[in-house]
Amino acid sequence: MTFSIFMTFVFVTAGSVVGAQYRFKTDYYDVPLDHFSFTNCNKTFPMKYLYNDTYFDEEAGGPIFFYTGNEGNIEWFAQNTGFMWDIAAEFGALLLFAEHRYYGSSLPFGNDSFSSPDKSGYLTSEQALADFADFLQWFKRTKKGVQDSPVIAFGGSYGGMLTAWMRIKYPHIIQGGIAASAPVLQFQGITPCNVFNQIVTRDFDQASPNCSATVRKSWDALNKFGTSDAGREWLSNTWRLCEPLKSSDDIEALKNWLVEVYGI
Fold first, then answer.
1. Residue 91: which residues within 8 A CB-CB, separation 6 or more?
2. N or C: which end of the chain has fewer CB within 10 A?
3. Structural domain includes residue 185
4. pLDDT-wise least confident of 99-103, 129-133, 200-204
5. 92 with 207, same domain?
6. Tens digits of residue pLDDT in 226-249
7. Quick one: 166 and 36 in the same domain?
8. What is the side-by-side order of every strand in the sheet holding 176-180?
């Protein structure tokens, strides 16, 4: 049926994006758990970062292209931020990607990071920005040839907001930034929360009068298939998912992922 064909296309297309294999080295830097109080002043955790200096022109004082990691594994963003890689050779840039705290491998309390508010409470944009600022200053001190390199930040969506905030809050560290698709007006009291979804729906309507209606029907279909083992097995096999759907939580995770796909 139309629903299954459309969804299969989405999964195959989304999976192929990650196929581009950019090369980078992986390392970790210990950042403070809390940058703004003395409560846990000695507590640190390893923040993952990736870098590639293949194109770096040390003699010309090439820049550092720095990706402000957002909500996900930093490898995913490194593999899907082609613009930075495309222009690195032209500018003689060193590429640097930092992982956002509480995502990927950068978990302050390991598997217990989300177990209670006293552990998850350090997940804030302010703390993440301070991680990046602390890390960049250390990196420029210790990495040969980058001491005088300007830092240009890159980010998309929430990552774009982080890039913009970095430039505002730490102008002595970030000399410029490209904040792609940053929702600068998407805040309470400025823009209603559902406006983005309304715009996405309008785009689908413009593509086809039946398009948004089909997507709406798909949620009921997913819920129905997700109530039984046989239904979840059919979804897993038909869409060729990387891992089988085993529970209602898996169905909710799938639906949340689809919401993100529709909004890209």
1. 55, 62, 63, 65
2. N
3. no
4. 200-204
5. no
6. 999 999 999 999 999 999 999 999
7. yes
8. 25-32, 44-52, 94-98, 64-68, 151-156, 176-180
